[in-house]
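Question: Send over one sample?
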Amino acid sequence: MGKALKYLLIAVVILVLVVAGGAAAIVLLVDPNDYRDEIASQVREQTGRELTLGGDIGLSVFPWLGLTLNDARLSNAPGFGDEPFAEVGEVEIRVKLMPLLSKQLEMETARLIGLKVNLARNENGRTNWDDLTAGKPGDEGKGPGDRGPGAGGGALAGLAIGGIEIRDAALTWDDRLEDRRFAVQDLRLTTGPIDGRGPVDVAFGFDVRSDKPEMRGPIEFKGRVLADHVNHRMRVDGAELTVDLEGAGLPGGAFDASLRADLAADMAQQTASIANLRLDTLGVSATGGVEAAQIQDAPRVTGQLDVAEFELAELVGRLGIELPEGVDAARLGTVRLASRFNATQNSAELERLVIDVAGGQVEAKAKIADLSQPSAAGELELRGLNPRVLLAATGQAVETADPEVLKRLNLTTAFTGGPDRVALRDLALTLDESQLKGSASVRDFAAPAIRFELDLDTIDADRYLPPPAEGEKAAVATPGAGAGAAAQLPLETLRALDIDGTLRIGRLKAYNLKSSDIVLRLTASDGQLRINPAQAQMYDGRYKGNIGLDVRTDTPRLSLDESLSGVQVGPLLRDLTGEEEKLTGRAQVNA
């Protein structure tokens, strides 16, 4: 046993001496710079490009198998100028020799410094890398497994890399076909040690410059990456992306954002997730998360997104949005948003969307089917909105006889719709003390067909009319006034109307006249508008009317067929004129 061990140790020592001696001989006897011309010739034969090696090629063998390359350039494709296609200032790669004998790869930090790549496309759409990707004759149909005997090799038993360092790299894209130029400058990448088992710290960044759209500024990313190639899993913990751009091509001339999240993907289980998401941009902060399943077969996505309270006017200002004259976003105050959603391959559902705006709240939920030709169904609720605030924000001055109206708006409805239609059912709207219920629909937004069935319980219209000037009585609509106004109507708009609907009002006060049980049916088609029936109970009597407007010609025609029967004249005149009763009795009037 002792002799066997002795001989074994002698054999090991001899092996080490042979390897060390062979390595020393290679370093002493082989100068890689002697093969510059041969290397350049092989590159020329394979690519048709010229490879220029300006600096020395360094080679080490033991204990590190290393290669150092300096000042290398690869020429551009013919017709793309004299600027190199790619150049590199320094490349350094060092691998421990002895562990390679047992298929263990132990590498120092790999360094790539001063890499410059110039990509271009000419006016005919040809790029300066087409010739590199075309392949050699006879290579067609060869896949990664068709590389000849022995090409496969054995798998590595272990991997350990000190890290990767890329500094002072740049990439340019010169697109003559679309006349734009894009450049990535000062590109840098650093990683921590890589052993194929534990997480790796990664930091990546670059400065971007573009002329279409015009923008410039830095983009940075960092995170801890864990890649499990055996189980097809990847995770990025503490991922952080920051963007700080400026330029005339950006809304408002600038864009800054900070995005933080934890990312995960499991291809074996077909799942992916974004957790602890936080986005800060344009003065707005959003948090949430997303989970996805069956991502390769039939993706299903669920998630939530919450936007913290922010000033709408500040967001509009940062985006550089020019609002219509008179519109003031500051009047809308602050906005907050909360949402939950899920989606499949061909459908989506908004489980809950809540928006706080204008002193009130908007809440909605919807299901969208067939995303290729979307149709939606859902529910909408408005609570406590202030119409005066909304109207003021859109620059519409609101003066009403009663300053306390137009302050409370609530609405609930179910809806269905698509790209060219919408229908509301179970509609319930409350404005101040008035309640409106019913249904409404619009088909074909380009040439709208409007249908409605609405019931209003009570309304005092005088409260919503502009206040009369001092000493002036409220105006009263008369048939003569209506006929005179008909000559000034927007004829083209009226001719395009397609309406069929009925409005019922329980009690109405207008121009101080009171009526009840009102029914108005409005139809409009092919330039003919009609209100029939028009009927109401008023002052112990009854009103009936049939009102028509024909706008098919350039001279509109107004037709009236109206009657009052059994109306108490005294109370009617008192309310109309505000004076004591001077006439009593019942009236029968036909016009």
Q: What stands out?
A: The chain has nine helices and 31 strands. The CA atoms of residues 233 and 266 lie 4 Å apart. Residues 1-29, 147-153, 477-484 have pLDDT under 50 and may be disordered.
